[in-house]
Design goal:
Elements: H1 3-26, H2 30-54, H3 63-91, H4 97-116
Helix pairs in contact: 1-2, 1-4, 2-3, 2-4
Amino acid sequence: MNIKLLAKKVWLRQLLLLVSAALICSWFDKIYAKSILIGGLIFLLPTMYFALLAFRTASESDKKTGTYNMYRGEMGKFILTSAGFAVTFVALKPIDGLILFSTYLVMTIVNIVLLSNKELS
C-alpha cells in the first residue's frame, strides 16, 4: 500500500478519536477538553509535517534526497512539537498539564498501534 494513503488513514482515525474524546470530555470539564484537544494536536500536526516531508520522494533510486528529507522532517517535527508545548504553556492558559501530556502519550501509542495494524494496509 502507498505510504501516503496509509498515513492519511491513520491521521483520520486519530483525529476522529481526538475530537470525540474532546467533545465527550467537554460535557464534564472544559479545561480538560481543551487540554485533550491541544495535547492531541501537538502530537498530530508535527507528525503530519514529518510524514509529508519525509515521504514526499517515493523513488528508491534517490536515497540521498530521501535521507535529507527524513532529517529535515524530523528536525521540523522536533521544533514544531517544542513550540507547541511552549506556546501552550505560555499563551493558552488555563490548561491541565497532566491531561495535556497524557493525551500526547496516548496519541503516540495509538499511532504506533494503528501503524502496526495489518488491516489498515
